[in-house]
Amino acid sequence: FVRPYALNYFFEGKLYRTKNERGSAVFELFFDLLYVGIIANLAEAAIEEATGASFAKYVLLFMAAWQIWTDMREFMDYYYNNDLSQKAYVLWIMVLLVVYANNANEILESKAQTGLVVGCYILARFSAISLTLVYTVFVKEHRRQMIWFSGFTCISLLIFGFIIIAPLRGKIAIAAVCYFYDTIVYAITFHPWFKKLIGARYSTAVNIEHEVERHGAFVVIALGEYLYTIVASSPAASGFNERTARAISVLIVAYCLAWFYFRGEGSRKAIHALRRSVVS
Questions:
Q1: Cα separation, 164 vs 123, whole angstroms
Q2: pTM of the model
Q3: Nearest-angstrom CA–CA distance, 278 and 280
Q4: How far is CA 256 from CA 38, 137, 144, 246, 263, in A?
Q5: Which helix (H) or strand (E) holds 154?
Q6: Of residues 154, 62, 70, the one with CA closest to residue 107
Q7: Average pLDDT for consecutive 10-residue bins of the chain (280 residues)?
Q8: Which of 126, 150, 214, 270 lies 20 to 30 A from 72 at CA?
Q9: How far is CA 225 from CA 38, 55, 56, 103, 230, in A?
């Protein structure tokens, strides 16, 4: 067990990095690999019947999984993450994601099924908040800001629970509002203006290199789904035909997306979004 400490933080506007050691990158990769199956499972259900309703369902279900991934990314960016308690936490979140992914597409079958899926999401996010609050006891550099962030996020989770009993349109509305609320809360509580508002001399700071690496890994996972679908079960077999042409077209699209994302093609000087100002 390792006493929690902040890897990076701001003190009166100046960035500090405490230690180079972050922990095992293998566990981050292992966690990300689970999303290969989650994306595939949600996407497969969405394309069975290509309608606006199925697309909306896919977006709403994926956003929940993405929010859990974001919580984990933030945790691994802020803190050393290689002791026994942290490994157990990662495994716990992955267990919840496995249950979530295997039941997400049947979320509308019954209230019990809705409760199972929603419960996994709320438990995963509440676990992240709880661990963050425990860490504020030890990590004074993040304390004030993280307490505000955790408090605001708890409001979202309380509202999210009403999805279980709400009618269909209500479920969609509650989920959309909560996702929007979480985005606004994140943008406000980590904004320099909010840090000044609460009088925080210390505040959180991201390790940009690590953030870029984690987002890049997720993009690779998403692009991997393109490549998987054009070769798994030989969908373009029996010579050169229309299906082969479609498979090659998908390959070109995935190749171009990787090219643009990782090389910034088209820019005189590529600047990653995380290195820009807060506004831009």
A1: 14
A2: 0.88
A3: 6
A4: 24, 46, 43, 15, 10
A5: helix 140-160
A6: 62
A7: 88 83 78 89 86 92 95 90 87 96 92 95 97 93 93 96 95 96 93 89 88 89 87 88 94 92 76 77
A8: 270
A9: 11, 17, 19, 20, 9
